[in-house]
Amino acid sequence: MADFYNNNSSVPKAVTDLYRPFSLPGLGPETRKDVLPIKELKDQLTQALSELESVMPEMEELLLSVLLLWHDHLEASHDISQRLHSSEGSYIHGIMHRREPDYWNSKYWFRQSGNHPKASALSEIAAETLCDIPWTPANPLGQRWESSKFVDLVDLALNQDRTEEALDCMQRLQALEFDTLVEHIWHRHY
């Protein structure tokens, strides 16, 4: 488990265990070896949520869409996020297109979402990460998270810089983006 996640999260461990112990997703569409198959992921999420008193259907769909992205099931995540008409659904849609990579479309969906729903919290977390991995082009994210700027940085890291430092920094920031989004979805819908 990565040491940079929010250890004070109120999201149930049964939910965070569906992504935190796994390796970090790539920045592109590649598939890792330690991902859960779609059916197993759905079953485990359903089981984790069944132990709660009441769960809004939209929360389950949002969480499933985020978790599908974490586990490299881009198309399955897209099927869900494109029918969710909320800022969170649009944001997840943007992440999916960023990973394809379809950067223009990703930025479109981030504009529809109005930026990350916890942009200020994510800026603080990004600043801490950038102290550990000081990839200079990413420094502005530590002052103000901008999803479209992050798309540009992912593009730069993958297609121009290509250093281990740049890729590691972007992967960690992407993981924090996911973690913060899960936290937001949880608090907003439960």
Secondary structure layout plus pairing:
Elements: H1 13-16, H2 38-50, H3 57-70, H4 74-81, H5 87-99, H6 103-113, H7 119-132, H8 147-161, H9 164-189
Walkthrough of the structure:
- With 190 residues, this protein is an all-alpha fold.
- It has one domain.
- The protein has helices at 13-16, 38-50, 57-70, 74-81, 87-99, 103-113, 119-132, 147-161, 164-189.
- α5 (87-99) runs antiparallel to α6, α6 packs antiparallel against α8 and α7 (119-132) packs antiparallel against α9.
Q: How many structurally independent domains?
A: 1
Separation, N- and C-terminal Cα atoms: 25 Å
Q: Residue-averaged pLDDT, rounded?
A: 93
The secondary-structure class comes to mainly alpha
Number of strands: 0
Over all CA atoms, what is the radius of gyration? 15 Å
Beta-strand residue fraction: under 5%
Largest sheet, described in full? Answer: none
Low-confidence stretches are none
The residue fraction in helices comes out at 55-70%
Please provide the ordered H/E string of secondary-structure elements: HHHHHHHHH
Please tell me what the overall shape is: globular
* SS element count, helices: 9
